[in-house]
Amino acid sequence: MKKVLILFCGGTIVMHEAEHGSLDMLKKQEAIDLLMSLEPKLHTTTRMDVEYIDNIDSSNMAPEHWDRIASIVAKNYKNYDGFVITHGTNSMAYTASALSWSLRNLGKPVVFTGAQIPGYKVESDARRNFVNAVRIAKANIAGVLIVFDEELILGARSSKVSESKLDAFETINWDLLGEIRFDVRLSSESKPRHHRPLKLMTGYDSRIAVITIVPGVPVRVLQAILKSGIRGLVLRGYGPGDIAYRYLKVIKEARTMKIPVVVTTQCIEGATLMHVNDVGREALEAGVIQSHDMTIESVSTKLMWALKHYPYSQIKKIMHTNFVGEINIEGKYKSVRISA
Questions:
Q1: Which residue from 10, 19, 212, 274 could staple onto 55, CB 3.0 to 4.6 Å apart?
Q2: In the chain, at which residue ranges do the beta strands (DSSP E only) sit?
Q3: φ and ψ at 204, to 5 degrees?
Q4: How far out from the chain centre does Cα 10 lie?
Q5: How confident is the model at residue 7 (pLDDT cuts 50, 70, 90)?
Q6: Residues 173-226: tens digit of each pLDDT
Q7: Catalytic positions (predicted)?
Q8: N-to-C CA span, the chain
Q9: Is the pTM of this model over 0.85?
């Protein structure tokens, strides 16, 4: 019987309706009992142990949680066939992206899942998602993944796109790693398990700011942010990553202060192509790092991780390094066929 370690983080999957009408967390043991009783038959096919991380709404998730999750995976890496992390949906894509950097050379599946509807409700999606996550944790696939609804998504390409749909997550600028129908259908892009040693690189410097550029934001606001103690800045530009001329002064000041400025697009799909328009070209020449086709979740967590482990002079190189499939600098978007 294969062994799967469940890393319990709380989330909607184990919430209940409180007296005030809002969803809130159950007590620790009640929540764990609810999760492990979602499908009793699982216990006849899989040995599942539980490691308690926290019991929180994922809006309260922080880099300290990311470090603890990654460290527990590494500690138990040789003892389990795979890992399932039950997690609230709000920040799941951030945590999945963050672990993609700290769990280097991952040769087993680390699978995130959760629910849009609490597990105690008859209409809940909790049972289906949890069962499928355990199935994937035993499959011949490696990497940090999200299993939600019928989709298998690379963690570093994931984003939550709906607050209420049961297929709440999408893969951004890439195709699915697989689909779950009556069987599991992995795509040719999925990576098989391997036995090379895992390398743990925990630690994130969360002193970054992420700013969405909208018309009229005063230059002095960005200048004040630079002086607030941040070590990195992400600017969400227009279209292909365009940044208004008025902010070139801020970009040059950041370079003088050795604060890397990463530019991404406000568009959900597509990439930064900052050479296309003059406003983008000038920002590039002023020293920004374009994020190409990475998600905002990948950009922000990767920058935090890079700032913790590498000097300023290497940040651009690290941001443009393709560690797990999160970035495609060439801008070619593959069409992946799902195998039957």
A1: 10
A2: 2-10, 15-17, 23-25, 46-56, 82-86, 103-104, 109-113, 143-148, 151-154, 158-160, 169-171, 178-180, 184-186, 199-200, 208-212, 232-237, 261-265, 289-290
A3: -140, 140
A4: 17
A5: very high
A6: 999 999 999 899 999 999 999 999 999 999 999 999 999 999 999 999 999 999
A7: 12
A8: 26
A9: yes
Please give the CATH architecture assigned to the domain spanning 2-200. 3-Layer(aba) Sandwich (3.40)
Any idea which fold 208-319 has? Answer: Rossmann fold (3.40.50)
Tokens 């629910």 -> residue: 115
Nearest CA among 28, 143, 4 for reference residue 76: 4
At residue 84's C-alpha, the angle toward residues 12 and 148, to 5°, is 55
| Nearest Cα residue to 283 out of 243, 231, 229 | 243
Domain assignments of the chain as residue spans, ordered by start = 2-200, 208-319
Residues annotated as catalytic are: 12
